[in-house]
Design a protein that fits this description.
The complex is a heterodimer of chains A (313) and B (247).
Chain A: E1 2-11, E2 14-24, E3 29-33, H1 40-47, E4 55-60, E5 63-64, H2 69-75, E6 76-79, H3 91-101, H4 107-117, H5 132-144, E7 150-154, H6 162-176, E8 180-185, H7 188-194, E9 197-202, E10 205-211, H8 212-217, E11 222-230, H9 234-242, E12 247-252, E13 259-266, H10 272-282, E14 285-291, H11 296-305, H12 308-311
Parallel strand pairs in A: 3-8, 3-9, 6-7, 7-8
Antiparallel strand pairs in A: 1-2, 1-4, 4-5, 9-10, 11-13, 11-14, 12-13
Helix pairs in contact in A: 4-5
Chain B: H1 10-31, H2 33-56, H3 63-81, H4 83-91, H5 93-99, H6 104-123, H7 127-136, H8 141-168, H9 172-188, H10 208-216, H11 222-245
Helix pairs in contact in B: 1-6, 2-3, 3-8, 3-9, 3-10, 4-5, 4-8, 6-8, 6-11, 8-9, 8-10, 8-11, 10-11
The chains are: A alpha/beta (313), B mainly alpha (247).
Chain lengths: 313, 247
Amino acid sequence: MITVDGLSKSYGDFKAVDDISFKIRDGEITGLLGPNGAGKTTTLRMLSCYLTPDSGSITVDEKKSAENTLDIKKMIGYLPESAPLYAEMMVYDYLKYVAEIRGITEEERISEVAGICRINDVMHKNINELSKGYKQRVGLAHAMIHDPQILILDEPTSGLDPIEIVEIRNLIKELGKSKTVILSTHILSEVEATCDRVIIINRGRIVADDSTENLQSAVKGDKDIIFRVSGTDFIALKSAVSGIGGVKNVASIDGEEFTSAVLTVDHQAEVRPELFRLAVQNNWVIYEMKQEHLSLENVFRELTTGSEDEKSK
Amino acid sequence: MYSGSLQPEVKMKSLNESLIIMRKELKGYFNSPIAYIVITVFHAFTGFFFFKDFFYYNQAEMRGLFQTLPLMLSFVVPAVTMKLFAEERQSGSFEILMTLPVSAWDAVLGKFFAGVAFSAIMLSPTLIYFVTVFLVGSPDPGPVIGGYIGALLLAAAYTSIGLLASSFTRNQIISFITAWAACFLLWILDKVIIFLPAPFGFVSYFGTDFHFQNIARGIIDTRDVIYFVSVCALSLMFTVKNVEERR
């Protein structure tokens, strides 16, 4: 369990992190979400004992980070932003070096970690010859080599291609089953895909701290259903579906070969079975019926760009 | 779990971590061309100063070499130490180093001893001159042994100064120039003394060459050794402070 209390850090006049407090429970994947420059990296740097906070405290399993720095560093595996590794070193030598400093003598552990991170085929290349994706994976291997209880990953998927992103996310989810993972990102879908919990930061302050599901359902407003049929025109369709309870608005989508509509529905109502029955009754052929997934995007936008009173909620 | 248990012998462990860092840095030197360039330049110049006396004046001794060594090292050692912290700050790997379970002292000592070891390796081929001189003449071994001990102490002092300069900046050129300026200043100190009024004569005690030439005469005086050790201790202390505070 990590307890952060009243943490602040300034660079000159700029308050990067401004009096934030939160708790991170064991065995959870926590996402630190925020726009660029919100203070995510600074927060993670303080958690990983790289930066010393100006005020406030970090406690990891009853140990104060300010007094037990070395002990806490041993418990943490940290991947800094964009994995700044020793460019001139060979991957194998680098991992061996980190392992030795961490007090690991078993040769097998290096190949084990290399296997998990899938870097076996680049072990004898220099780090500066690697692609961004491989570098990131070497960074991950570096963070995992001592099998730490806590993994802190700063933007683990930035600069990767879509396949690599999925791979890394799966790896993080796998690790999250047995470890405490804290990752930062400015990509919303990443949090939705991997995290149990989200902390949204903006301008150095926490604006939301809840489970991913709660945040998603807390989105104010409605959800959209895209509905495409043939065998009717829009006016008939509109009058038919408007009668379903929970439907607030029906708008047409232009330029389609089918009769298409976007239904705005109260977020608690489930109207899809009704839509299906309607179509059967009226002999419409359904080509598409898609419920737009409630997205954190809305919460995020609301919290980070909304007016002052919205922010304080 | 691989982490966890703290060894009771904390001091031994910390020394071990310094050794790992030292080995990594030393290996790093020889993985990049800079080591070979520095060593080549060093031997081109020292070779000239040795053979000038050897053939020109027909003297079987190494005084010429040891006389120019302090000036040579004031150029060469900063080139060796310039990257030690500056490169890490530039590339961002400093963050990696500082989040590994090592103290600032471990990191600084590891890098310091890597620099000193590099200097020792660089100096070692000059032992051929030593053998040559003994084959063709019968020089006094005292000044030669003293010269080598002095050279190592001097290299250590310059390394610590270079390390301090390197810890201030992310720019290796700035690191080199400031370290060189500091080392050169210490070298020239006892030579500019003639421009100062007599009461300022004590200033020459702060010069590296003053103390080096004492040792290179074959007289190993504790005062000279203490001078070099204090320069190292002071510079390393400030480097550690710098590494801890400038993140």
